Amino acid sequence: MREVKEDHKVLFKNALYDVVECLIKYEVSHTAKTLINHYFNMSESEETLSRAIEAIEKYTQEQIPTPENRTPRLSRLLDELAFRAKRWDAETP
Q1: Using one digit for the tens of pLDDT, what is the confidence trace for 33-76?
Q2: Which residues touch 51 (CB under 8 Å, ≥6 apart)?
Q3: Do residues 77 and 15 make contact, with C-beta atoms less than 8 angstroms apart?
Q4: 8 pLDDT band (50/70/90 cuts)?
Q5: Residues 79-86, mean pLDDT to the nearest whole number
Q6: In angstroms, rounded to a whole number, what is the distance separating the alpha carbons of residues 28 and 78?
Q7: CB–CB of 67/75 below 8 Å?
Q8: 17-51 b/e (C-beta count within 10 Å ≥ 16 → b)
Q9: CA-based nearest residue to 47, from 10, 85, 14, 17
Q10: From residue 16, how far is each of 1, 4, 51, 58 by CA, in Å?
Q11: Residue 60 region by backbone torsions, left for phi larger than 0, else alpha for psi between -120 and 50, else beta
Q12: Distances in Å between the alpha carbon of 88 and those of 3, 4, 16, 91?
């Protein structure tokens, strides 16, 4: 059971990095991933998606574009992030 939980967390983190990479238009380094994880972990929000949005906006220093201003790719990546965040929250006791 623990392996399944870890897989969901890995998939969530990968979705988080994918959104950041889409917004900044280049691949994030290991150091950048560490910083994004730090921002995520330091968030005081209770919901995983809110924590992720805070981490993304803090790292990129910009707000996520409104739905009408998003590229189709960004919309897909944000949908994936939201899906993975709900899975994470569903597993948290």
Answers
A1: 999 999 999 999 999 999 999 999 999 999 999 999 999 999 99
A2: 40, 43, 45
A3: yes
A4: confident
A5: 97
A6: 17
A7: yes
A8: bbbbebbeeeebeeebbeebeebbeebeeeebbeb
A9: 85
A10: 23, 18, 10, 13
A11: alpha
A12: 13, 11, 13, 5
Q: Enumerate long-range contacts of 17-21, CB under 8 Å, 24 or more apart.
A: 18/77, 18/80, 18/81, 19/52, 19/56, 19/64, 19/74, 19/77, 19/78, 19/81, 20/56, 20/59, 20/60
- And the tokens for 60? 């990129």
- The letter for the amino acid at 66 is T
The set of residues, in sequence order, having a beta carbon less than 8 Å from that of 46 and lying 6+ positions away, is: none
79 token code pair: 């949908």
d(CA 12, CA 9): 5
Give the pair of three-digit tokens for residue 56: 């993304």
Q: CA-to-CA distance for 78 and 81, rounded, in angstroms?
A: 5
